[in-house]
């Protein structure tokens, strides 16, 4: 039983890792008053960038380069979004949708033109889980928390760092000010658009890292549309986590747990329609959203065009 | 590709960026002209609609290879488009009909309703749905007895498992997939009566990470042979098999080379052969709309063992597989027992 529990927790953290990366980035973007629906596109761009980057160098260095190129590709996708949504004040939802569609189409087209019709196979190097000596031997939670790929460990640093930065630094205050009252922030000498641009690019880079994680820490290959809606789930995770880094990480874990439970239930052969299990993570998200949204805490200027 | 079909109303409301995007996305839908027609003879033009990317090394890749075979052997002009939603199925069927294509393949069970709706408006075009079992004046189906070779894969899985647990993982629960898994289970129980068979569905055909997690969960329950039929998501299942050192079976195309160290064999539909058979008849004008049933006997469906792992399969097991194959081809062994196949049970469609 403890073995099954340990395996469930491992799957939870694995599934939560790319979601948490993408959602943390999006939470920063949204703190600046910008909602980037193009996050899904940034994840796809990151996944494809990671594949190309890892393929160029090969081996362990390839995986490292893959993460860098993945982040840059995600950043590029969000730069396209920022050009229209922040620079030209186009509608954020429509622009984001367009970026997602563009990224899905472009990555698929580029994938075929570079890798041919047979695809990349499973030749992409993956970053194997690194077991932390001692800690990974802890009962039940040891392997779930301390025998994971490096991308998961990056989150252990990123979450507290972001929490500190957002609430304890001047730059963090400026970010939140822009998201709440851009006019007041401007009066205080902050340049709202510049802050929004930076926040959007940061969110895109983290979305790219999420896509790179899918390729380099999990799949070991690329497939068209492999992001499979994670960008949209990450946006829900941000709301669920109340735009707070710690809350967002916890919400990603909750979603990861619901997914892992779904995998486990199916594998255990429970004779129920599998669609019920597949719906579990989404149902859970709905329930939690409905129960916590009573106190709305969204940045006041979120999604507004004339910031 | 998937975004080429904006309605004009929505089109006008969208920002200029969307136009750029749609163009970029549409640029992916390739149209490759082949050797083409000669003289005044009307060209033989063949189109293919796939439900997913042709780079999946599985179901969709096989269909595209079939399309290319038709171009190369029959001199057809070919066109392929990737579709996602039923609305797109219908729209693209109409487009090809209006452009005077001779033969249009809808690659999957899910294309049937759209084909039946569109076909009466374009009587000169023959619509064929793969895995389809409905017919009309110019609508035909091709069904593959995928379960026949799935049964053989199950027999092999039952012999190769050391834990007594084997798994099957599909993309979504389409009737042919369900029948194939039932046959896999029956085959496994034929060689190993106490075997436990797990079945999971990813819920889509693209999510490689989720495919891998489904496989890891089955491995956690003891599975040491997993049969996957999940297209691109199946790549994640192979990846899990590689990492945990268990065996896997491929599906649709010959996937033995995708993960040569762990894939015992592939349940293959020789789609190029099936596509060519239909296209030849259509070109010659001898095609009559019907459901073309193709199974192991025709050579279109088969279990292709991975030569790299051939020495792991005991000779007695091989012999058992061979005699089962002969019995299935002769019709004396029915993989699904006396239960009707999925094609019969779903023939309620008009």
Describe the structure.
The complex is a heterodimer of chains A (307) and B (350). By secondary structure, chain A is mainly α. Chain A has a single domain, classed as ABC transporter involved in vitamin B12 uptake, BtuC (Orthogonal Bundle). Chain A has 12 helices and 2 strands; from the N terminus they run H-H-H-H-E-H-E-H-H-H-H-H-H-H. In chain A, strands 1-2 form a two-stranded antiparallel sheet. In chain A, helix 2 runs parallel beside helix 4. Chain A is globular and about 60 Å long. Chain A starts with a helix and ends in a 15-residue tail after the last helix. Chain B has 350 residues and is an alpha/beta fold. Chain B contains 12 helices and 13 strands. In chain B, strands 1-3-2-4-5-6-12 form a 7-stranded mixed β-sheet, with helices on both faces. In chain B, strands 8-7-9-10-11-13 form a 6-stranded mixed β-sheet, with helices on both faces. In chain B, strand 7, helix 7 and strand 8 form a beta-alpha-beta unit. The radius of gyration of chain B is 21 Å and the shape is globular. Chain B starts with 7 loop residues before the first helix and ends in a 5-residue tail after the last helix. The chains are: A mainly alpha (307), B alpha/beta (350). At the A-B interface, helix 1, helix 4, helix 9, helix 11 and helix 12 of A face helix 2, strand 8, helix 8 and helix 9 of B.
Low-confidence stretches of chain B: 1-39, 344-350
Counting helices, strands and paired strands, the structural category of chain A is mainly alpha
Mean pLDDT of chain A: 90
Cα-based radius of gyration of chain B, to the nearest Å: 21 Å
Work out the strand percent of chain B: 15-25%
Do you know the CATH topology of chain A?
ABC transporter involved in vitamin B12 uptake, BtuC
* Count of discrete alpha- or pi-helical segments spanning 4 or more residues of chain A: 12
Cα-based radius of gyration of chain A, to the nearest Å? 19 Å
In helices, the fraction of residues of chain B equals 40-55%
Question: Could you say how many structural domains of chain A there are in total?
Answer: 1
Anisotropy-based shape of chain B? globular
Mean pLDDT of chain B: 85
Q: Which regions of chain A contain 5 or more consecutive residues with pLDDT less than 50?
A: none
Tell the overall outline of chain A: globular
Number of beta-strand segments of chain B: 13
- What is the name of the CATH class of chain A? Mainly Alpha
């Amino acid at each position: 039983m403890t073995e099954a529990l340990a395996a469930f927790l491992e799957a939870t953290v694995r599934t939560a890792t790319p979601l948490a990366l993408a959602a943390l980035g999006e939470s920063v973007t949204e703190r600046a008053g910008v909602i980037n629906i193009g996050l899904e596109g940034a994840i796809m761009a990151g996944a494809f960038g990671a594949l190309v980057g890892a393929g160029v160098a090969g081996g362990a260095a390839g995986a490292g380069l893959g993460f860098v190129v993945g982040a840059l590709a995600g950043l590029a996708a969000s730069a396209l979004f920022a050009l229209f949504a922040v620079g030209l004040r186009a509608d954020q939802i429509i622009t984001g949708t367009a970026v997602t569609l563009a990224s899905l189409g472009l990555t698929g087209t580029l994938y075929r033109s570079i890798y041919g019709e047979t695809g990349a196979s499973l030749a992409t190097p993956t970053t194997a889980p690194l077991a932390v000596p001692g800690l990974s031997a802890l009962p039940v939670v040891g392997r779930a928390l301390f025998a994971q790929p490096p991308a998961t460990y990056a989150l252990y640093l990123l979450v507290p760092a972001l929490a500190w930065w957002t609430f304890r630094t001047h730059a963090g205050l400026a970010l939140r000010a822009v998201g709440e009252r851009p006019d007041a922030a401007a009066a205080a000498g902050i340049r709202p658009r510049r802050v929004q641009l930076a926040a959007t690019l940061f969110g895109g880079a983290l979305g790219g890292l999420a896509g790179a994680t899918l390729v380099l820490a999990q799949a070991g290959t690329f497939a068209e549309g492999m992001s499979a809606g994670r960008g949209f789930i990450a946006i829900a995770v941000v709301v669920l986590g109340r735009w707070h880094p710690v809350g967002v990480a916890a919400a990603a874990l909750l979603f990861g747990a619901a997914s892992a439970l779904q995998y486990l239930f199916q594998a255990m052969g429970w004779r129920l329609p599998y669609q019920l299990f597949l719906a579990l993570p989404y149902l859970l998200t709905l329930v939690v959203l409905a129960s916590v949204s009573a106190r709305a805490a969204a940045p006041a200027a979120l999604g507004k065009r004339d910031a | 590709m998937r975004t080429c079909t904006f309605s004009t109303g929505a089109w006008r409301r969208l920002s200029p960026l969307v136009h750029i995007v749609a163009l970029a996305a549409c640029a992916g839908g390739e149209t490759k002209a082949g050797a083409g027609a000669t003289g005044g003879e009307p060209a033989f033009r063949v189109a293919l609609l796939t439900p997913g990317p042709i780079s999946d090394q599985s179901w969709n890749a096989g269909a595209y290879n079939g399309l290319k075979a038709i171009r190369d052997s029959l001199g057809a002009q070919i066109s392929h488009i990737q579709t996602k939603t039923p609305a797109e199925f219908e729209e693209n069927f109409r487009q090809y009909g209006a452009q005077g294509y001779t033969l249009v393949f809808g690659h999957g069970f899910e294309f049937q309703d759209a084909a039946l709706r569109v076909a009466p408006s374009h009587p000169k075009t023959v619509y064929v749905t793969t895995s389809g079992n409905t017919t009309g004046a110019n609508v035909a189906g091709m069904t593959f007895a995928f379960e026949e070779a799935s049964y053989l894969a199950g027999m092999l899985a039952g012999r190769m498992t050391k834990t007594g647990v084997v798994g099957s993982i599909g993309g979504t629960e389409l009737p042919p997939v369900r029948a194939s898994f039932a046959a896999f289970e029956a085959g496994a129980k034929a060689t190993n009566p106490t075997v436990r068979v797990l079945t999971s569905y990813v819920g889509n055909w693209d999510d490689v990470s989720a495919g891998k997690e489904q496989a890891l969960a089955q491995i956690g329950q003891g599975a040491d042979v997993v049969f996957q039929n999940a297209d691109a998501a199946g790549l994640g299942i192979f990846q899990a098999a590689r990492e945990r050192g268990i065996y896997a079976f491929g599906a649709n195309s010959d996937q033995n080379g995708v993960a040569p160290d762990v894939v015992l064999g592939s349940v293959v539909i020789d789609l190029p052969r099936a596509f060519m058979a239909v296209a030849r008849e259509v070109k010659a004008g001898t095609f009559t709309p019907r459901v073309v049933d193709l199974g192991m006997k025709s050579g279109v469906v088969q279990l292709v063992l991975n030569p790299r792992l051939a020495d792991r399969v005991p000779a007695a097991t091989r012999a058992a597989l061979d005699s089962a194959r002969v019995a299935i081809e002769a019709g004396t062994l029915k993989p699904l027992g006396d239960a009707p196949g999925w094609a019969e049970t779903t023939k309620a469609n008009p």
